[in-house]
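hey
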């Protein structure tokens, strides 16, 4: 895209997220290029971005100068430059060592650091300025996630004509936790700069409304929040997955035969339990390993006939808390295998690797039980992917009550992951369920997902934002 075009303020739809939806690649000749990153958000937004010639503003993933704006697969990409100090302060620090743990119930101690807060402000302003430059008059701007919570307020100052939406992908915490945050009023004012603020779960929406009233004295109305003479709508928009694509993978003969091969390679055990998480302390990996080991020790499950496959995707490896977690998990896996393995069989298969969508789908098909037991999770797409992939309606999902997905996938074996006995009972119950019970539970969940896929989620949010009248900024009646 030419510089003039990019600067011209011509985009009717602008998306902002920490990351651009592409990753850097190099081909065999060493030439650099871009590849669309896997992920539901870009899939969901692709058709509408294309139709409305939208722009996506985000970081390209490497510290240093930003590449010029470019087009990839019909999406106009506007890279934001982050220096090494920005990456450390805004991304690893304030976003992932302060906000991330605080918003996930403080399961790890959040770290508060003034230099990180300054970087966070500076980078948020850079995003807001980029959006202010490229957005057409009256454009829709959709800001994503906890990295960019100051952007709506900053952007409203720069461009009061825009309709600004914000969606938080992670939980929004209760008042008493949020109030630990040194930037608490600033963040609330930032979010209230939006016309529409969306959350994964009704609890987050409630927490936000309570905080607006208690912290900033905003007035709570039927449709949302009245703050400084403007109406801000706040509502729940549970994100979903590309259900049709997941279903296609689940019926693909190559994927099905790979699933059968995985079971053979695992030694054809009676029960395969699968867990797939980023290696993050919110995902409850340690509680799950403890419950699994107790089940093996107490003969709730036969160690000779059961396998747990734990896929742990590498993530945020520069951050201390993540390095410490990795050491603890790997020590625990070795200990369990040391005590319960036999020659040629291992009760835990631990894979610290990334997989492509087809291999992941084959793992979902190979698993009798899917264990999704985070201590706190905004939604958890893995739970939805498992249900959607199992096209024959079999399979058993054990799901934490503290994942956003539990509000929708009510027929799963729902469990409090802190309660070791309950976790063991849920895992054993799922492992011994017959095909009738599996189908009875899976059918309504599969039906729910068919009606609530990621396209419905994106359209729901954008239609609601589009209905908000500019000027009065009062949401129009439904
Ligand atoms: P995450 O915390 O990353 O997302 P999740 O919702 O489970 O968690 O999404 C992970 C995605 O990565 C899934 O689509 C999954 O298929 C993929 N993935 C997992 N293991 C992989 C592997 N080994 N290789 C390749 N891909 C793998 C955050 C919030 C969630 C919220 C989402 C979306 O923490 O609560 O659901 O955003 O809003």
């Amino acid at each position: 895209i030419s510089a003039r075009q990019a600067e011209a303020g011509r985009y009717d739809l602008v998306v902002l997220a920490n990351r651009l939806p592409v990753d850097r690649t190099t081909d065999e000749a060493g030439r650099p290029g871009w590849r669309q990153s896997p992920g539901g958000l870009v899939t969901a937004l692709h058709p509408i971005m294309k139709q409305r010639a939208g722009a996506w503003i985000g970081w390209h993933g490497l510290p240093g100068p930003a590449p010029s704006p470019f087009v990839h697969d019909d999406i106009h990409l506007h890279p934001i430059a982050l220096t090494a100090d920005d990456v450390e302060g805004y991304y690893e620090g304030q976003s992932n060592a302060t906000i991330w743990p605080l918003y996930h119930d403080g399961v790890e101690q959040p770290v508060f650091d003034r230099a990180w807060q300054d970087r966070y402000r500076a980078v948020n302003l850079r995003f807001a300025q980029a959006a202010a430059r490229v957005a057409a008059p009256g454009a829709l701007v959709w800001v994503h996630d906890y990295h960019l919570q100051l952007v709506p307020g900053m952007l409203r100052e720069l461009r009061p004509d825009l309709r600004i939406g914000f969606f938080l992908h992670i939980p929004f915490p209760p008042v008493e936790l949020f109030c630990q945050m040194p930037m608490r009023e600033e963040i609330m004012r930032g979010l209230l700069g939006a016309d529409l603020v969306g959350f994964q779960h009704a609890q987050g929406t409630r927490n936000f409304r309570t905080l607006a009233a208690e912290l900033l004295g905003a007035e709570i109305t039927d449709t949302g929040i009245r703050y400084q003479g403007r109406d801000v709508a706040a509502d729940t928009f549970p994100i979903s997955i590309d259900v049709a694509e997941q279903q296609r993978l689940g019926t693909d003969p190559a994927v099905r035969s790979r699933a059968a091969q995985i079971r053979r390679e695992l030694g054809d055990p009676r029960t395969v339990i699968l867990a797939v998480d980023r290696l993050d302390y919110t995902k409850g990996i340690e509680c799950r390993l403890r419950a699994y080991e107790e089940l093996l020790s107490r003969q709730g499950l036969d160690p000779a006939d059961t396998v747990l496959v734990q896929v742990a995707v590498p993530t945020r490896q520069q951050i201390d808390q993540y390095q410490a977690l990795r050491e603890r998990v790997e020590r625990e896996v070795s200990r369990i295998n040391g005590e319960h393995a036999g020659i040629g069989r291992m009760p835990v298969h631990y894979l610290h690797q990334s997989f492509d969508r087809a291999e992941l789908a084959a793992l979902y098909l190979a698993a009798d039980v899917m264990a999704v037991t985070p201590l706190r999770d905004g939604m958890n797409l893995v739970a939805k992917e498992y249900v959607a992939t199992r096209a024959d309606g079999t399979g058993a999902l054990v799901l934490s009550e503290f994942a956003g997905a539990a509000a929708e996938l009510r027929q799963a074996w729902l469990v409090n992951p802190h309660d070791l006995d309950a976790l063991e009972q849920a895992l054993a119950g799922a492992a011994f369920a017959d095909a009738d019970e599996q189908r009875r539970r899976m059918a309504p969940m599969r039906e729910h997902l068919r009606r609530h896929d990621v396209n419905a989620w994106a359209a729901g949010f954008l239609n609601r934002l589009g209905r908000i009248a500019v000027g009065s900024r009062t949401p129009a009646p439904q």
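Residues 169-170, 239, 276, 278, 311, 313, 354-355, 360, 377-382, 385 surround adenosine-5'-diphosphate-glucose (CB under 6 Å). The CA atoms of residues 15 and 471 lie 22 Å apart.
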